[in-house]
Amino acid sequence: MNEFSAPLPSGPESTRVDRWLWAVRLTKTRSDAAQACRGGHVRVNDRPAKPATTVKAGDEVRVRLHGTTRTVDVGHVIEKRVSAPIAARCYTDRTPTPPPQATTPVIRRDRGAGRPTKRDRRMLDRLRSDFPPGPPAP
Predict the structure, then answer these.
(1) Which residues lie within the region annotated Disordered (predicted)?
(2) Which of 19, 21, 62, 101 is the most exposed place for a label (fewest CB within 10 A)?
(3) Can you give the residue ranges of every domain in the chain?
(4) Has domain 12-91 been given CATH number 3.10.290.10?
(5) Are 86 and 5 contacting, i.e. CB atoms less than 8 angstroms apart?
């Protein structure tokens, strides 16, 4: 019997949001999940969540981690950490895909070449103006 057909572990009807985030492997440690809650980076059903906020099946959890915002729907409540394939079955990820980033060529000068001359700078400016500016850096 493989992990995809194995039944989900039984769990309570509801649990703390910090414990659930850790159990489904959205954060590495439970203290990271609690810190994210205290920092205002976690919302449950569009309300700011403290670490002790309860989550139950059907709730929407939005968490901002490492510069990205993940939006997940709670499908199954667990309190103990389980394997990654089973944990992934406990929620539905509704995070929008990030927009593709325009790649502009990187202009590099030889190391030790010194300051660009006036002619070099004009050529670089001309080359840069041929490409539209990319999205602003975060």
Answers:
(1) 90-138
(2) 101
(3) 12-91
(4) yes
(5) no
Q: Write down the pTM of the prediction.
A: 0.68
- Reported as a pLDDT band with limits 50, 70 and 90, residue 37 is very high
Cα(13)–Cα(68) distance, rounded to whole angstroms?
29
Residue 137 β-bridge partners: none
Locate tokens 């103006």: which residue?
129
Spatial CB neighbours of 115, under 8 Å, sequence gap ≥ 6? none
